[in-house]
From TrEMBL:
It holds the Pfam family YjgF_endoribonc. Gene3D superfamilies: RutC-like. It comes from Roseomonas fluvialis. SUPFAM superfamilies: YjgF-like. Coiled coil: none annotated. Residues 6-146 form the Endoribonuclease L-PSP/chorismate mutase-like domain. InterPro entries: Endoribo_LPSP/chorism_mut-like, RutC-like_sf. This is Endoribonuclease L-PSP/chorismate mutase-like domain-containing protein.
C-alpha cells in the first residue's frame, strides 16, 4: 500500500524513476544517523539529460525551472532508496543546493531553483521548507542546465 508521500506524488502526476547510477567515483547518497545527503542530480529523463545548455542562452529561465523540478524528482528517487523504500520516513527537507549553468550576465538563478524548492513544499508541505544555496556555474556534467543536491532528515 502506498504511503502518504507516494499518494501525494500520484496526485501531482509524478512517477519516480529508477535512481540514476553515479557517473564517476562517488555514491548516490550517504546516510549518517537521521541525515541523508544526496549527491547532485541532473535533469535526467528516460536515461538522457532532458535540459542541456546554459540557462539564459539555449535554455529559457522557465525551462530551467522545469529542469530544477526534474532534478528534485530525481533526488526523490534517491531519497526513496536511502529511506528503504518508504518516503513517509522523511521528517524534513533540510537543505537544497542548486547549480545553474548560465552565462555570466544571467541573474535569475533563484527563480530557476524555485522549480526544485516549490516541488519540495508541494510534496512535503511545511516539512519541505528548507535552507538553500543557488550558484551560477559555467558548465555542468553532461552539459546539464541544472544540478540539485539535497540534505534530508529521516524520522
Amino acid at each position: 500500500m502506498a504511503g502518504r508521500i507516494e499518494a501525494r506524488l500520484t496526485a501531482l502526476g509524478i512517477t519516480l524513476p529508477t535512481p540514476a547510477a553515479p557517473i564517476a567515483n562517488y555514491v548516490p547518497f550517504t546516510v549518517s544517523g537521521k541525515l541523508v545527503v544526496i549527491s547532485g542530480q541532473i535533469p535526467m529523463r528516460d536515461g538522457a539529460v532532458a535540459f542541456t545548455g546554459k540557462v539564459g542562452a539555449e535554455v529559457t529561465p522557465e525551462q530551467g525551472k522545469d529542469a530544477a523540478r526534474l532534478c528534485f524528482i530525481n533526488l526523490l528517487a534517491q531519497l526513496k532508496a536511502a529511506a528503504g523504500g518508504d518516503l513517509d520516513r522523511v521528517a524534513r527537507v533540510l537543505r537544497l543546493g542548486g547549480f545553474i549553468a548560465a552565462p555570466a550576465s544571467f541573474t535569475q538563478h533563484a527563480a530557476v531553483m524555485n522549480g526544485a524548492s516549490d516541488l519540495a513544499v508541494e510534496v512535503f508541505g511545511d516539512a519541505g521548507r528548507h535552507a538553500r544555496s543557488t550558484i551560477g556555474v559555467p558548465s555542468l556534467p553532461a552539459d546539464a542546465a541544472v544540478e540539485v543536491e539535497g540534505m534530508f532528515e529521516l524520522a
